[in-house]
Design goal:
Length: about 290
């Protein structure tokens, strides 16, 4: 199984590119799962059909399923699984205290990550494409396997409690987290794509994200620059000026990464629906979507 991760700051087009890549891979005969970890996901709009927390078939693309991870819902379900058997056994005041202890950001974060890890180990697919939340959230998510494994070890040696329950209930999860980290660091299994736009601020964030990925020992990312003004449009003074600015930003990326980034042109229409996704996919298919 292979994993493709698309990340970048909000609004750079990573959802469209992840979706188009998933479509192209499915069209090539692969069994593909597209998973979004972005709480503000618009996958349903892109595919023009309902998508929820469980994998659902994309009606016009045989072999493709999609899923939206809902960390808040996952945390609520976890709390109910943990507390449900205790209702009527422990005093209501104690149940309320436990519920409050399990309602913090740690529980939501780990519950969401559990869903992320669960998706990584599904056996029914050849490729899993992740459309991740904006860069900062994604980097924290990717740091969790190592951090959470350390937290479990420290809890074993201390109180025996984690933010989501007794540590003895989490040993399987610890092994899964460590296995997930190994996959994220294995270039034969994982491809990480940083999506950016040809603008100075976006490029700076991309460079910063790449350095943080390197610190986490995550595989070296590919760079996709979305929204490049085509040369043939630069006969208009406004677009000519914008294109010169974009080319300076692209030069900065080349100097930083010593590789020419994949360029996707600025499109005149919104990327929505299967036809538009297939049209977009041709710009990245040879570099990102190649079946390996």
């Amino acid at each position: 199984m292979r994993y493709l991760f698309f990340s970048g700051k909000g609004g750079v087009g990573k959802t469209s590119l992840a979706s188009s890549t998933a479509v192209m891979l499915a069209d090539a005969g692969q069994r593909v799962l597209l998973v979004t970890t972005d709480p503000a996901s618009n996958l349903a709009d892109v595919f023009e059909q309902t998508i929820g927390p469980e994998p659902i078939a994309i009606s016009q693309v045989p072999g493709l399923r999609a899923q939206e991870i809902d960390a808040e819902a996952s945390a609520a379900a976890y709390r109910e699984r943990a507390l449900g058997p205790l209702r009527g056994v422990l005093p209501d005041s104690m149940i309320s205290t436990l519920a409050e202890q399990m309602s913090g950001p740690c529980t939501v974060e780990i519950a969401g990550f559990d869903e992320f890890v669960h998706a990584m180990f599904l056996a029914d697919y050849d490729v899993i494409v992740f459309d991740t939340a904006p860069t900062g959230h994604t980097l924290r998510l990717l740091a969790l396997p190592s951090a959470w494994s350390v937290h479990i070890t420290e809890s074993e040696q201390g109180s025996g409690q984690t933010c989501i329950g007794p540590v003895e209930q989490l040993q399987t999860s610890k092994g899964e987290y460590e296995a997930a980290l190994g996959l994220l660091q294995d270039p034969s299994k994982t491809t990480f794509i940083l999506v950016t736009q040809p603008e100075r601020a976006a490029v700076k964030e991309t460079v910063r994200a790449a350095k943080e990925l390197d610190e986490l020992s995550i595989v070296k990312p590919q760079i996709v620059v979305n929204g490049v003004i085509p040369e043939e449009a630069s006969n208009h003074p406004f677009f000519a000026s914008r294109r010169r600015m974009q080319l300076r930003a692209l030069d900065g990326l080349v100097q930083e990464f010593n590789v020419k980034p994949i360029q996707v042109p600025l499109l005149e229409n919104e990327v929505k629906g299967i036809k538009a996704l297939r049209a977009l996919g041709k710009w990245v298919s040879d570099d990102v979507c190649a079946v390996r």
